[in-house]
Structures are given as C-alpha cells and as structure tokens.
Amino acid sequence: MATVYIDNKPHQMNPDQNLLHGCLSEGFKLPYFCWHPALGSVGACRQCAVKQFRDEHDEHGRIVMSCMTPAAEGTRISIDDPEATAFRAGIIEGLMLNHPHDCPVCDEGGECHLQDMTVMTGHDYRRYEFDKRTFHNQNLGPLVNQEMNRCIQCYRCVRYYRDYAGGSDLNAFASRNTVFFGRHEDGVLENEFSGNLVEICPTGVFTDKTLKHHYARKWDQQFAPSVCVHCALGCNTDTGERYGTVRRVVNRYNHEVNGYFLCDRGRFGYEFVNSPRRVLQPVLDGHPVSPEKGRQHLAEKVATGKAIGIGSPRASLEANFALRTLVGPDRFHCGMADEEARLVGGIVEILRRGPMRTPTLREIEECDAVFILGEDVTNVAPRMALAVRQSVRRQPMEIATGLKIPLWLDHGVRDALQDARGPLYIATPYATRLDEVATATFRAAPDDLARLGFAVAHALDPRAPSTDEFPLAGEIARALRNAKRPLVISGVGCASEALIQAAANVAMAANAALSFTVPECNSIGAALVGGLPLSAAFQAVREGTAETVIVLENDLYRRAPSAEVDAFLNTAACVVALDHLDNPTTRMADLILPAGTFAESDGTFVSSEGRAQRFFQVFVPQNGVSASWHWLKQDHWQDLDDVLVAMSRALPCLAAVKNAAPSAAFRIAGAKIPRSPHRESGRTAVLVNIDVSEPAPPGDLDSPLAFSMEGTAEQPPAALIPFFWSPGWNSIQAVNTYQKEVGGPLRGGDAGIRILEPAPAASQTNAQAYFSAVPAAFEPREDEWLLVPIHRIFGSDELSLSAPGIAELVSEPHIAVSSGAFAEGAEVEIVCAGGTSRLPVHVRPELPRGVAGISGIRLPAWGKIAGAK
Predict the structure, then answer these.
(1) DSSP per residue over 593-604, as a string?
(2) Which of 227, 451, 527, 683 has the fewest CB atoms within 10 Å of its CB?
(3) What is the C-alpha separation between 825 and 816, in angstroms, rounded?
C-alpha cells in the first residue's frame, strides 16, 4: 500500500490505482462524472479536481485531476483547498449551463448522480439566462428511453457501449461545441447489454423505459435482494415494487458474479410478474376456490399414496425439496427432459470430481486464453459473454505494462493495445456474436466439434484419446499451454454429451478452468436434489401405479413432445399444477395453485458456477398467491429456516445451502433490515385511498427483512442488501461506500456460497480420468437433417417472453439452413418424432451440410424437411 497525505493526514491507498479511486475507497466525498470503476479514467469531465503539492513545504500546489493522477507513495493532495473547491464548483456550473433542470419530471429524480454531485459541490443557483441547446430525442426501442437535453457530455455511455460491451450502433456525433450521443438514426439498440446505460449514465439521459410505464420514485419503492431467474449465471439483482406491482430490476453488485452489469433479459424480463396471464388464485375443476380448499384437495390426493411429483429447474431448491418430501423421494421426478437431466447430471459429476475448477465471472474476465466448445455464449449465458469480451484484453495488457502505462488509464491502454486481442477460439455449429473478437472460429456438427475438442486435449497431453488431427487443434493447444490462466467453456446448448466430455478433457490436459452453461436458473440445483427421469413419471401413470400428478413450476410441453404430454396428463386421474403463468400444462390441470414468483417468495438457486444464492420476496402477494414451498410444506415446518435444516439433513450435498444468507433471526442492533428507503413517503400515504388508518406492515417469518422503512440504518450483509444508499450518495454509485475498496468485494464478502468445489489435489483419489468415447465423424443423411437449437437471448427463456418489452424483440420461429438448400423466406414442413411443424427458412451459409438450426421451438435431433412451399 502507498501512503498518501490528504489535507496533511496520511491514508493508505492502492498504488496500482489513481487518487480518485483511493479517495473514494477512503470514504471521501470527491465528486466525479466520467470515471467509472469498470471503465477506468479518461479525464473528460474535470470534476474530480484536487490540489497536489510537491512536498510538505509547498504552499501553492497545482490543480490536478485525481482520476488521472496515480496514488503514488508520498503524494500530498488537498480536497478542501479553496482553489480546488472553487474549480470544482465552476466545472459543474459549466456542465449545468444547458441542463434543463427538470428534476421534478425526470425519471432519474431522487437517485441521480448529477443531483448528488451538484449538492456535493455546493452549486445551488443558476446564473445562465440565455437559450439552451435542445435535441431531438431518439426512439431506441422498448427498453431504453433517451432524453438528450439532460446530457453533460461525460462520455460514459459510448465508452461503456462500444469499448466495454462491444456495441457499434451508439456513438458520439459532434459539431463544434455540441455533442449528441445516440444512433445514426432511430432504432432499437442492438447490443444485448444496452440496459446498463440506465445505470452508467450519471444523469437522466438514458432511463428504464419499462419503468416509465409504471413509474414510481426510488424512495416510494420497496426493494428486496434477489437473483435473476432468466439464465443459470445467478446474477444478483434488487427488485423494486409499489402497490403490489414490480416496477423494475436494478443491478445488485456482486464482485465475483455480475459486478456492475446485467444483460437486458435479466434487467427487463421482470415484467412477467405483472402479466395478465398470471395465475392469481386457486382454481379447482375450472372454478376459483379458497386457498384452504386448494390445500385440502391437494392433501386428500397425496393421502391416497398414489401421487407423484415433478420438480422444476426454474423452481427454488426449497420448492423442489418440499415436493420431494411430500410425495416421497422414490416418487419424485426431476422435471427436466431425460436427455437434459442426464447432461446436467454429468456436468455436476465432472465439477464434483475435478480436478477442474469453475471460475467466477470475475475470474473469467482475468483469463488470458479461452476455448469455447459448442456454446453460443451470448444467447445462452449473456453475462458470461460480457466477461469473455473483457478476457480478450487480458493478454495484450502486457503491452501496456511493458510501457509502464497504468491499467486504469483507459485511453492510454487502448492506444497502446490498438486492435490486439488475446487468444479466443470458438467452435460452434453457427456464427455467434462473440465471433467478432475471436482469434479463429470453427463450424461443424456437434460430433465433429467434440472431435476437435478431443484432438486439442490429445495435442496437450498424448495420453488423452483422439482419433483425428485437426490443423486448428495444435494452434488452440499452444494458446492454452502458453496461457497463465486458460479457460474452457462448454455446456448443454448442443445437447451433446460428447462435447461436454471433450471440454473436460481439454481442461484437464491444459490445467485450465472449466465453465459449463446450463439452461435454467436452478438446473444445477435440480440436479443436486435429484429424482427419477421424467419418462418414469409418464410410465408410472401409463401403468396405473400413479394417479395424481403434482407439477411444480414446469410447463411439461417444453420438456417432451406434445403427444406424449397430452397422453400423460389425460391419463392421470388428477393433475395439480403450481405455477406463475397460465400455460399449456396449467390448462390441463384439475387443480391450479398460484405460485409466487421470485418477487413474491423466498428461496435459493444454485448457479452454473455452483454458487447457492438466496432471493427474497419484495412484497406480500394477494389473492392466495404463495411460495410453492408454502403450498407443499410439512406441518412441522414453520419458516424457511426449517425447510433448509430439513433439506440439509436429507440431502448432504446441499447441507451448506443454509449458509447462503443469514437466517430469519438475524438482526443488527436488535433491528430488522428495511426494504424501503428511509425517505419513503410514509405508510399512511401509501394506502390512503383505501383507509387513512392503515394497518401495521405485514410480518416476515422467513427473512430478517422488514416490509417498511423501519429498521437498522447500518449496512447489512451482502446477501441482504435491498438497495444501495449512503448519505450524499442517492444514485447507484452509492455502491462505492459498500465496498472494501472501490471496484472490489463488498464488506463482509459477496453474497452466496459455493457448494460445488473439486476436492483438494492431495485427496483426489477419485479424480476424473480422461473420457475416451470419441464420437464418429458426422455423416449427413440423404433424407434427414440433424436439427440443432439456435438459442436467442430474447425468446429462448420461458418467463421473459411474457415481459412486453422483451416480447417486442423476439424474432419469429424459423429454420436455418446453409445456402442452396432452400430459398430465403420459403416455408417448409419439418416432420420428426416430436410432431410436424411449418416454419419459414432463413439462410445461414456457415451451417454445415446436413445440419439445420431450429429457432423458437423444441424438436428432437433428427427430422425430415419437406420441400419449399
């Protein structure tokens, strides 16, 4: 650490960072705009000025920008120097000359970084009396709203969008002293991470358009810590609610997982909670009934001893375990399609046995050579793709280090690196968004991709089996061998066990980290809970050993062919469905029980990293909606902690899950943690249209959170942070005050607990040996096509499809073939074991011969394609 003197008092700072970073980490209120911990320094706004002195005898000093000055040993600065203070006040007055001062109608009001910095500098009077520049705002699509008149030209937006997220359709357009940040024409922002502009922008230029439809000020919203339900990465979020409606989702900082950023599906997919398709009350035989009647009917059916349960990879661990307990372990089914369950189970086994370790998303950013085998990462695990984009800069950073350019000096580093990128190899059946930063790509059918993987492993270690020699295999092997932190990424996207095993072989041979993607938010958790295959449930009903089927948060028509599911549900004497949304399975149910969404219930998910994380309800639902585990719980379970204790005893592999967050008994100085900001208007004002004399807020037996603004003012543990706020920091930048060091871990550690770790090397007597089942080379068939899924960030996820903003971006289902097979736009008929479908054709020349991509529907692996019509 370096000793830096601030106003003649010594402070310890990170010598690899700049003074602004150090001052903020030490708790000083030094204003800034253009700097961001994830973006580095460019010195564009000049707002973070301080006075620097040569030594203790220097009485004059000079004004410097703290974001552009290293925190070197012995540095002496003053934040409170009158000249520096006046300089900062002048800067913000200049930035505010053209600002409309429209805080009362601005969506950012009350959580605006510009407001915070204006107050911090003492600028409270507008002297400018002339015309202001005005802009025409653009329509940027259904997710992000633009109000350019509020811009202070900090350049954060384009730096994030272009340099960090890899977008190309947002830019800075300048004419003399006027700068416009936007697209060359109106249109939907193309980048999958555009929603982060809402939090990157320090003013109200870019705001959440979905929030605009049901707007509420930050201080009038109730918040709860949550976990994203739209993929398996487990990104941390905070959910905002008012009047029983979820208003928005914002990023909840987790140093090891999502850091400062979310993907657009995770940020805007929340609106399914407010969908008109919501199941809001129990329904028995087509008629609404009371919750008591629903529970009674369920109990009667279970008492017969002929009930079976079907779990779900999008339901919490607690819900799956409660259903398993209710029907018995030998009558519980995991709820994934048989092949998917087998693949996910294989991944869990590989990660358990080691020796490969799954890196966190932060660790992926630090990897310096990456091999992606078979996965369209951007569409399957979007936030991981953003991490991979940062990893390609890791190896070239040595250029900047050699030139003694500090890595926080963003423009200097980028000028030194130019277009240099580290090794990234992508082997997939079709082109992906990450191809633009890849060193090389390889297109083939899944079996041939696996053969490439086996060949790479063999090139790294001759003991690893292989039957082929690919010219690219040696190049990939050299890149992984020469890397300090190599990484292999694969998953179930191609539904190929051979690909998963090949990726494991490469990681073992290269001594590399290994990341697997899985389909849903709790796929790993569902595999750990276990259960019989879904086909066994079909067989039990067919053979008459089961009469009642309890389906937990699962649309079975997404798991198996429609004809099979129809026969299964029609044969069962009684079908009970617990779910959030009306879907084909609930329409076949005799009893429908309204299950609480992530915003209305508490529970735990296990991410693809193997990290167990708790989510908490943000409001108490009405009309009988209840957490699934509440509908299914045993009489002796009083709260969530009881379920966790019972689960840890019954399933030792999940024993550590109870430590993922503090128990319901946790208190800070005897007080609960408030879900509402202390600036909330007050309880009496919330429901005054119903009754001025308002009842007490509801209690919460399942968490240490309070449904009010009452509670401790201290910062809670990471897993229990409902929102970021600190005196003087009302915007999301308040996260700086929660971190040990700005950009570093939260105080007390980040949320969640890893429950999948390989055994220590010394005890790996059962460590994974090389897989040897190398598949045969793919042979196209004369009359059939191999059908591979084409994943979409907007459209593949079940729940976000019911979010209006996301739904606008969903492309129609189609079949993709290589050029020459069928004409673009032609309609063809696909005939296979799963049924018959008619789809339009999109031509994708990169697809291998004999392979067709299916987007938007689920079909078995092989099918016939009838001629164009």
Answers:
(1) EEB--TTS--EE
(2) 683
(3) 10
